[in-house]
């Protein structure tokens, strides 16, 4: 590693400052190394040497414990049998060196899935577990290349609990919060072979005790953790004292957690990458500057609204996101609704005829409705998240995890569109984000972390959702 400081531009290397391990087959995943470099500006943020070495040890652990290994066989041997609960012998003999977190796909969209995977991967790094991802919905391998060398992150389809993990929810008897509620766990309880952790936005106070140090001591002894989540819960991991020491070493700059980990984990498959590059080459590559606009409309019904349109235009004007210089500018619009780019084209063509500038508006898709788990739809969504991350400046919609992933990947501090107030654009229309980190929109504000949340210098309430917290 060279001696440059953290904010100096990195030498533009294909391994992202050591984040990525060399040696993968390049052709099977073109986005991983050189190809991305052709499209992405070098990140000004360098991973710490400690993060790099932690990732290398993680990779070795994953290879040793991953699917198909002796350790994996041993660890899954008695899983799911009736005596899973109370066979002390089993727990003692289960391979102490191999412990697992299983990320289970939920019905939420791609952004929700990606932010929760990053959070869970961070948890795996901190607790020396390996992360396996549920592939039953078949989206993972259509979207992402394998991130870890010489092994797989896909949960095998013959995993002993495969038939039941889909039905795990809050009230399930295997759910940690429910077990606490039923007093099924106390200080003398022998840790079970597996637990379900419910870290979805509707989780209860007892589920949230996952974030308490003392509860982590118990959870640490459970070899298999099955997790459903749609949240970016990394900020609350920072408030667990034993994790904090490690996190400070891993991320001396606290607002780079998501940026580094998404770039480490997610490499679009060649199919998705083809969508990214063809769109980029045809519509964005010739522009001097690219502005990304992500327009997500959460109202019901969703659709095209004049007040949302006015808000977008007023944000770009007020924040001078398209300076009136005679340059070629491209505006990349991502939205389920094609009408936004049609209308923006009208607005900007009126403006450009008087100033001599060229503004081209392009929207890759207008799917109208969310169709999560439709292969092509999800691939388009991922391609658009990537395209947004390649822009120079980015405007995103509030509380959208789709937007969170785009700005985190790109290392961009977006301008966030505020929630419109009863059919009128809010004033001001948007606000500049303080950091490129996603917001933890349902952070546990009560309980063991209540005091620390208020005083932690590295946390702030989110610009787009006040009860939420984010790393800054
Ligand atoms: P969130 O609901 O905004 O937090 O983001 P998610 O990604 O979790 O869920 C929204 C889903 O709707 C996406 O994954 C896509 O399937 C779809 N979607 C929403 N906005 C867009 C968009 O601008 N372009 C495309 N292609 N799909 C979108």
UniProtKB/TrEMBL annotation:
It is found in: Golgi apparatus, Golgi stack membrane. The keyword Transmembrane applies. InterPro entries: XG_FTase. GO terms for cellular component: Golgi cisterna membrane. Keywords: Cell wall biogenesis/degradation, Glycoprotein, Glycosyltransferase, Golgi apparatus, Membrane, Transferase, Transmembrane, Transmembrane helix. May be involved in cell wall biosynthesis. This is Fucosyltransferase.
């Amino acid at each position: 590693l060279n001696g440059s400081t953290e904010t100096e531009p990195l030498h533009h290397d294909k391994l992202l400052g050591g984040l990525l391990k060399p040696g993968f087959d390049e052709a099977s995943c073109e986005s991983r190394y050189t190809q991305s470099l052709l499209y992405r500006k070098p990140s000004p943020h360098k991973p710490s040497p400690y993060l790099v070495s932690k990732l290398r040890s993680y990779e070795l652990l994953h290879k040793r414990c991953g699917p198909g290994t002796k350790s994996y066989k041993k660890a899954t041997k008695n899983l799911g049998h009736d005596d899973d609960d109370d066979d002390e012998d089993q727990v003692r003999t289960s391979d102490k060196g191999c412990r697992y977190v299983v990320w289970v796909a939920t019905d939420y969209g791609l952004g929700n899935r990606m932010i929760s995977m990053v959070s869970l991967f961070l948890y795996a790094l901190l607790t020396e577990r390996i992360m396996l991802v549920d592939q039953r919905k078949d989206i993972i391998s259509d979207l992402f290349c394998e991130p870890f060398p010489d092994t797989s992150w896909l949960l095998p389809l013959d995993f002993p609990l495969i038939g039941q993990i889909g039905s795990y929810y809050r009230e399930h008897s295997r759910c940690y919060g429910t077990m606490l509620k039923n007093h099924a766990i106390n200080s003398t309880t022998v840790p079970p072979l597996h637990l379900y952790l419910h870290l979805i936005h509707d989780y209860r106070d007892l589920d949230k005790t996952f974030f308490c140090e003392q509860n982590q001591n118990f959870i640490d002894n459970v070899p298999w953790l099955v997790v459903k989540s749609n949240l970016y819960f990394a900020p609350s991991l920072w408030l667990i004292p034993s994790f904090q020491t490690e996190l400070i070493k891993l991320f001396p700059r606290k607002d780079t957690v998501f940026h580094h980990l998404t770039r480490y984990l997610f490499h679009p498959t060649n199919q998705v990458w083809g969508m990214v590059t063809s769109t980029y080459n045809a519509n964005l590559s010739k522009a001097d500057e690219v502005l990304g606009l992500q327009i997500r409309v959460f109202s019901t019904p969703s659709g095209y609204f004049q007040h949302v349109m006015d808000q977008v235009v007023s944000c770009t004007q007020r924040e001078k996101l398209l300076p009136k210089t005679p340059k070629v500018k491209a505006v990349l619009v991502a939205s389920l609704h094609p009408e936004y780019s049609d209308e923006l084209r009208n607005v900007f063509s009126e403006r450009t005829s008087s100033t001599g500038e060229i503004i081209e508006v392009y929207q890759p898709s207008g799917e109208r409705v969310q169709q999560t788990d439709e292969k092509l739809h999800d691939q388009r969504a991922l391609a658009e998240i990537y395209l947004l991350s390649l822009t120079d400046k980015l405007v995103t919609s509030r509380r959208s995890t789709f937007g969170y992933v785009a700005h985190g990947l790109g290392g961009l501090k977006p301008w966030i569109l505020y929630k419109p107030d009863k059919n009128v654009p809010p004033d001001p229309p948007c606000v500049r984000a303080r950091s490129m980190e996603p917001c933890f929109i349902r952070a546990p504000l009560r309980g063991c972390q209540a005091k620390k949340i208020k005083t932690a210098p590295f946390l702030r309430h989110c610009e787009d959702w006040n009860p939420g917290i984010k790393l800054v």
